[in-house]
Amino acid sequence: xxxxxxxxAAGAMAVSLAACGSAKESGDNADSSGSAKKGDDIKVGLLLxxxxxxxxxKFDRVLIEKKVKELTSxxxxxxxxxxxxxxxxxxQQVDTMVTNKVDVLIVDAVDSKAIAGSVKKxxxxxxxxxxxxxxxxxxxxxxxxxxxxxxxxxxGEALLKALGDKAKDGQIVMMNGSSTDPNAALFKKGAxxxxxxxxxxxxxYDTKEWKPENANANMEGAISALGKDxxxxxxxxxxxxxxxxxxxxxxxxxxxxxxxxxxxxLSGVQRIVTGEQYMSVYKPYPQEADVxxxxxxxxxxxxxxxxxxxxxxxxxxxxxxxxxxxxxxxxTKDNIxxxxxxxxxxxxxxxxxxxxxxxxxxxxxx
Length: 366
Prior knowledge:
Oligomer: single chain
Radius of gyration: 21 Å
């Protein structure tokens, strides 16, 4: 799994990253944050976008808090807030963090454009900002995420593999993420780069707020428009929406067609075990969270990011942002043991509860 991840990352970095600047440039970016040099007694503001997707509360928050403590000998404090998918709330949370004089902010933006003014407020107050998972606009100091075009490519390639010859004759439905999330556009771009010309897209949707219920309604509309015998597969940008999509497919009497996903949520992994969902994209959250914490602590302490961020990414408003993009892995029933179980994300007992035990036994997940 590690070898595969490195291979994916190598190719992705080559096509998606802007040219690297010099080490001096990276250091200058870190030192220009306005943050006074401090020791381990720092305050890190952490703003996450929503709590409907399981990863944010279960993984990201916990992992970042743990790493900050580790890097600061237990002296660093993480001040946390969740915007619950409301951009205005998140802007208010940034204002509160600025008022409370945190030393650095880690922000996973609800809306990458709407957050720009608040990022500038933080910057003007001498508080550096790490864009986490989504590339926020405004004068950010650092960025870490996954290669999101590669995520879409990975999903598209898996869907084509699952479709086989059916790709020539049938139609797929594409259920993209929210138009306010810059990552959704990158997933879509990557998927289209693989799917276009190989399979007909019968219907395509940008799903408001990534909500499963909206994906469910969109899927019902697609089935009605296309006819249930014409749909041979579904590109779903994440696992939550895949759940809503699969509910709509079942209600229409459609089964045994591949549905993609992303995030390796427990429910998604369980659907993969039973065959209801074909794949998910496993994103190693521990690595992404560790990098974000390392960047934040370094910036709060007035240190260079040279040893952490070897690459640069351009946002719509800021050029050459010191960045780390973490590799991803296509998760199917064949590699559950070597990914989410091996990395300690889930245990076999968590996945293989009563109703899933027989399906787990069938694929050797014991």
